[in-house]
Amino acid sequence: xxxFSELGLSQTICEVLEQLGFEKPTPIQEQAIPLLLQHHTTDxxxxxxxxxxxxxAFGLPLIELxxxxxxxxxxxxMSPTRELGQQTAKQIDEFVVxxxxxxxxxxxxxxxxxxxxxxxxxxxxIVVATPGRLIDLMKRKAISLSDVKYVVLxxxxxxxxxxxxxxxxxxxxxxxxxxxxxxxxxTMPREIRGIIDKYMSNPHEVSVDAGQxxxxxxxxxxxxxxSANKLAAVRRFLDIQPDMRxxxxxxxxxxxxxxxxxxxxxxxxxxxxxxxxxQNQRDAxxxxxxxxxxxxLIATDxxxxxxxxxxxxHVFHHTLPDQLDxxxxxxxxxxxxxxxxxxxxxxxxxxxxxxxxLERKIKVNFELVEVPNKKQMKYSRLNHWSKxxxxxxxAQDVEEIIANLDQDLVNLSQKELLxxxxxxxxxxxxxxxxxxxxxxLNEETGQAQRNEERNKPSDPNxxxxxxxxxxxxxxxxxxxxxxxxxxxxxxxxxxxxxxxVKKNCSFFYVDKxxxxxxxxxxxxxxxxxxxxxxxxxxxxPPQRRPRKEFNHxxxxxxxxxxxxxNDRPKSRSRRR
Length: 576
Ligand code: ADP
Ligand code: MG
Hints:
Blueprint: H1 11-19, H2 27-38, E1 44-47, H3 54-65, E2 75-78, H4 82-95, E3 104-107, H5 113-119, E4 126-129, H6 131-139, E5 150-153, H7 156-161, H8 165-173, E6 180-185, H9 190-199, E7 204-207, E8 218-224, H10 230-240, E9 246-250, H11 253-265, E10 270-273, H12 279-290, E11 296-300, H13 301-304, E12 314-317, H14 324-331, E13 341-347, H15 352-362, E14 366-368, H16 374-391, H17 398-403, H18 407-410, H19 414-428, H20 452-455, E15 464-468, H21 478-489, E16 496-501, E17 506-510, E18 526-527, E19 530-531, E20 534-536
Parallel strand pairs: 1-6, 1-7, 2-4, 2-5, 3-4, 5-6, 8-13, 8-14, 9-11, 9-12, 10-11, 12-13
Antiparallel strand pairs: 15-17, 15-20, 16-17, 18-19
Helix pairs in contact: 2-3, 3-4, 6-8, 14-15
The structure holds adenosine-5'-diphosphate and magnesium ion.
Magnesium ion binds next to helix 3.
């Protein structure tokens, strides 16, 4: 007997689980599995946070309930995105290894449908699908839902968020009256109640309380910095922790891409993940992230939802989410499998309230940490460098090399040599990444007035500077850019001035008479399958000095950001 067999699962499944390293059921599995096995014709609602093992909670009972000798599709699992669908199918595939006659297939949009049609010709008892593609396949008669006994709505809240309500309606309307609907979700927005009332009768409901099981392995931290200094602050945290691997959440697709572009120009291993990328691009990004060839994935909530990547040391919140629930999902990407993780929010001085709300709602304590200043950065980098030295294996022919060196160097004392080496190294380790970046990036919360200059509407009598995500690497010249911009915006080229073509992006000024609504004219414009983005640039001239090369790999100081006391007096009077 093991834990799983006590839930009513078969010997075969229990053995497979053991091989997969599933020792003990998670709370949602413990509660859902026996219910679903016994009352499988009853509708079911399961609520639990991301990462709590919902796939096995419905996948294992489904496998047990399949009729292996029947070749038709008996269960559909609906999934909001291709990535989640693939992940679910992969997990269920692992569960069915010993059920030779059971087949699982995953279908999703954005790729050639004919291959999927062909795949569905063989007996496929369990189909994982994104809603749109499933409807397509139904219309083409590649799949029939008439024998479907179980419809799983996985990540139901996310499917509704993504506007799949009507597709779900249509799919369910093609199933038999006596099918059961199992709905799994991390949150319970009102729209889900709508689905429940419409399609379910007396469902069983299991909910694993989020407050109760808040993850002890995650420490929640925040820094307070001006919005204009946020990226500089993020960069210091990346620098000081070259070993970190994490996700940074941003609010919009556009912001996500821009931030990723900016960090790439600075030379960091980052990439963006958001809904404007094609499916293939998203797959490639996830593959690189999983293979650890990037330090930071910069993502929107939707794109990163439910993605199962372990070993993340950090979750950054470039902006806090509007919905507090999302905070839990985001931070739940770290602190997995018993490892410690840090969830770090970058807030501006007006957002102190949000931290308090989160503390109340999800019952965790946030710790205020300090953005390291330039001196701390310097020491952290030197520390990292000294660790590298200590770890270095001495080359074999080093004796011979020394013998041939300038004797003046060889005769230096250890102290003299060290002093010189450090001084040289300091030149490499410039801590002033972008010209003129303030030494201290920390702010206090609760100072709305301090942000006036940033938030005041731009002067209506001045020309406006704009950013565009096209640059040298796209092969554009100043003239091309002016031509393109005036063409799309339908304005005279005299209205565009001071065009500045950078490596990855460009800047230009638009005459005051034309600046209103200018950026919006580029919405939806594509060039070579790439979405063009234009927006107002309020940060003044771009940082001109490129970051000096800094070794992001290996070793590294682990204690960044002195912790600040949460009750630090507000009157620490700097610039006031
Ligand atoms: P959710 O759907 O709730 O976000 P998943 O089903 O994707 O969570 O599971 C998250 C991860 O935890 C997966 O890698 C899965 O294989 C693993 N997992 C799930 N249940 C268990 C368990 N009982 N023991 C060990 N690992 C588990
Ligand atoms: Mg899931």
